[in-house]
From TrEMBL:
Annotated protein name in UniProt: protein O-GlcNAcase
Organism whose genome encodes this protein: Salvelinus namaycush (Lake trout)
InterPro entries registered for this protein in UniProt: GH, Glycosyl_Hydrolase_84, O-GlcNAcase_cat
Gene that this polypeptide is encoded by: LOC120018110
Biased composition (Acidic residues): 302-311
Top class in the EC scheme: hydrolase
PANTHER family reported for this sequence: O-GLCNACASE (PTHR13170), O-GLCNACASE-LIKE (PTHR13170:SF19)
Enzyme Commission identifier(s): 3.2.1.169
UniProt GO molecular function: [protein]-3-O-(N-acetyl-D-glucosaminyl)-L-serine/L-threonine O-N-acetyl-alpha-D-glucosaminase activity; beta-N-acetylglucosaminidase activity
Biological-process GO terms, alphabetical: glycoprotein metabolic process
Lineage summary: Eukaryota, Metazoa, Chordata, Craniata, Vertebrata
Sequence segments annotated as region (Disordered): 295-317, 335-364
Highest rank taxon of the organism: Eukaryota
Keywords in alphabetical order: Glycosidase, Hydrolase
């Protein structure tokens, strides 16, 4: 029996829905503990955030075994968690992910889903979310008979569950195409998103990650576009601090590259941060500052100019938000979270009370050891400072950028390596500069070691244990870099031992994954600091008949990569005849890309594609009489030669009299679709007779 409508009642009373702000626990990996979540609610209340979305991917009963009801013991924990959230003014949203194996058209499956959510509703939860992210898009035969598309199936079940729960004030839907990169052919023309926007009930909000899964920038223009398609403002599920995709990275930079002008355009923002709970202090704290900054007035702390932030937001400064967060975090580092932490620097000693009984042997009241004049001095742990935390943040900043100190260290190491010949017998001006910069680099290395030592001795061990693997790793890398620079400068023989051909295991990046990556041609291409560029040498030459065999090989190999079914099941393209050798390119309208291993790409054109189009039952777009096709072997990882080749071909086509060209792509060929889209001149075309799974793109010449 459907429950009374909460959202409808709110609409009738004119109640304004509050801006959703907070945290989503939605990563892959070990979920946070109940104690950590309770502490999170307290922080959210303190910082002005209002929402927690429960969606840990590795909670079996959230995703893999979503049909199973919670046991009495599990129920007790969830009740306590929901109660703690309410106590701190935090809206607890329970999310469930049935998309791995649900049969949408089976009433028993939908009834099971309702039963599960009814159970959670009985725990005191009044906000819910259905997630259909990271699942296969192929429907089962029963669903194909019942629904015209995957989107229709998801929307039908979501609407039914929403009404069953009484149309709660907060109900979130995560689409399978949850970012622009997943939309075919793009956001504005996505059939999936249009179906969601037109059919999802208006009281249901939609989650969206931005241009990509992990978005570098989220612009107002992009949100306006997706809002128009969805017919509602989205809730951003922000993965900018997520690290579940790489166990070697953690992110402690500020929330940034999202203008506060977004806030009026959004329903809300939830950060899906690092898997490790305690290092998320910065991510959540700076998000809270960002949310407050969008309220029409600047935070007092945010006033003033940011000289180091070009195009800075007048309401929000990431640099200052980071300083505020680190200042607060320092206090938590310095508080002892458990017994047995490091000794205080000046412990007070209690006097022993007289007793006839033999006292237990403890350190309380033991005499203080005072070293003699010739003894080693006592080790004293230096207290952690704000500068140490600033350095920590800059070394583990954000997915798309290093912090300023990390960039400086990489730049200096690169310069010292490139100019190592300056260190010789004769003392020159360049030699003096080299030694001066080497000294500065050494100072930065020492600062990293000092930070490591102070962190290692910080009283709050829980934070330290979440960070320990990462700070050990960076210390190891900096140690090797420092030793290398000293070896170049001839300052230390012993330090050069780590650069030998037979190093200790700690002297190199180990593990099978590292060895796999070093064998790949693209390894290093996505480093945030790239110098010199990691590219091969390519040459472009005119096509000749002898190239047909190699072109056919590339064509067939790429078809096999596209096909999830046999190649015969792929929709036919007009250009298949060109690449397959049945059609010859027009004179002077064919190019071949070569590397050291031979032919690795091609670009072919027909100045008049009328006959070829008729043979494939197509009608040419009026302003685009010519056709091109281009393909690259997977080993070509650098887009630059491909851009040069397509630019040359378009120039040749124009010289041959063409006024416009088009190309056809299968929807599964995301690589070439992204390539043409990023050129900027190609747009999607409407073309009569085009198969359902084929996209046409064109450009005027």
């Amino acid at each position: 029996m459907p429950k009374p409508s909460a959202s409808k009642a709110a609409a009738e009373t004119g109640k304004t829905r509050r801006f959703i702000s907070g945290v989503v626990e939605g990563f892959y990996g070990r979920p946070w503990t109940m104690e950590q979540r309770t502490e999170l609610f307290q922080r959210e209340q303190k910082w002005g955030l209002n929402t927690y979305l429960y969606a840990p991917k590795d909670d079996y009963k959230h995703r893999m075994y979503w049909r199973d009801l919670y046991s009495p013991e599990e129920a007790e924990k969830l009740v306590a968690l929901i109660t703690a959230a309410k106590k701190n003014g935090v809206d607890f949203i329970y999310a469930i992910s049935p998309g791995l194996d649900i049969t949408f058209s089976n009433p028993k499956e939908v009834a099971t889903l309702k039963r599960k959510l009814d159970q959670v509703s009985g725990f005191g939860c009044s906000s819910f979310s259905l997630l259909f992210d990271d699942i296969e898009t192929e429907m089962c035969p029963a669903d194909k008979q019942a629904f015209s598309s995957f989107a229709h199936a998801q929307v039908a079940v979501t609407n039914e569950v929403f009404k069953h729960l009484g149309q709660p004030d907060t109900f979130l839907f995560c689409p399978t195409d949850y970012c622009a990169a997943f939309c075919t052919p793009n956001v504005s023309q996505s059939a999936y998103l249009h179906t969601v926007g037109e059919n999802l009930l208006p009281g249901i909000d939609v989650l969206w990650t931005g241009p990509k899964v992990v978005s570098h920038h989220i612009t107002v223009e992009s949100i306006v576009e997706v809002s128009s398609v969805l017919k509602r403002a989205p809730v951003i599920w922000d993965n900018i601090h997520a690290n579940d995709y790489d166990p070697q990275r953690i992110f402690m930079g500020p929330y940034k590259d999202r203008p506060t002008d977004l806030i009026p355009k959004l329903r809300g923002v939830l950060t899906n941060p690092n898997c490790e709970y305690y290092p998320n202090f910065v991510a959540i704290h700076t998000l809270a500052t960002w949310c407050r900054s969008g309220g029409g007035q600047r935070d007092v702390e945010m006033t003033g100019d940011d000289d180091d932030e070009a195009g800075s937001d007048p309401r929000y400064s990431p640099r200052r938000a980071l300083t505020l967060a680190l200042t607060d975090w320092l206090q938590e580092f310095l508080s002892t979270d458990q017994p047995g932490g490091p000794r205080p620097l000046n412990p007070t000693h209690l006097k022993k009370e007289s007793s006839d009984e033999e006292p237990m042997q403890t350190d309380v009241g033991d005499p203080v050891y005072v070293p003699g004049s010739g003894d080693n001095p006592l080790f004293t742990a230096e207290p952690l400072t704000l500068d140490d935390l600033q350095l920590l943040s800059e070394l583990f900043y954000l997915p798309y950028e290093h912090g300023s100190t990390a960039r400086t260290m990489l730049t200096e190491l690169d310069w010292l390596k490139a100019h190592r010949e300056a260190v010789g017998e004769a003392e020159t001006e360049m030699t003096a500069e080299w030694r001066s910069r080497a000294k500065c680099f050494d100072v930065m290395c020492v600062a990293v070691f000092t930070m490591f030592n102070r962190l290692s001795n910080a009283p709050n061990r829980s934070i330290l244990y979440d960070l320990y693997n990462y700070i050990c790793d960076i210390k190891s890398g900096v140690t090797l870099a420092r030793a290398y620079v000293k070896q170049l400068g001839g300052q230390s023989r012993s330090s050069g031992q780590v650069m030998t051909d037979d190093p200790e295991p700690w002297g190199f990046r180990g593990g099978l994954s590292g060895e796999f990556q070093r064998m790949l041609p693209c390894h290093g291409n996505r480093d945030l600091f790239r110098h010199p560029p990691m590219t091969s040498v390519y040459s472009i030459r005119p096509f000749c008949p002898e190239d047909k065999t190699e072109i056919q090989k590339i064509h067939m190999e790429m078809q096999r990569g596209e096909a999830k079914a046999p190649a015969a099941a792929l929709p036919a393209l007009i250009s298949d005849g060109l690449a397959g050798g049945q059609l010859c390119p027009s004179p002077s309208c064919g190019l071949v890309l070569e590397d050291e291993r031979g032919v690795c790409g091609y670009a072919l054109g027909l100045t008049d594609a009328t006959a070829a189009a008729l043979n494939n039952q197509r009608a040419l777009p009026g302003d685009f009489p010519s056709m091109i096709t281009m393909q690259l072997h997977p080993r070509v990882t650098d887009p630059a030669p491909a851009r040069r080749m397509i630019g040359s071909l378009l120039s040749l086509m124009k010289t041959s009299g063409s006024r416009g060209v088009f190309c056809e792509l299968r929807q599964g060929d995301r690589r070439m679709f992204d390539f043409y889209s990023k050129l900027g001149s190609f747009t999607t075309l409407k073309m009569a007779g085009l198969p359902q799974d084929v996209i046409a793109m064109g450009t005027s010449l």
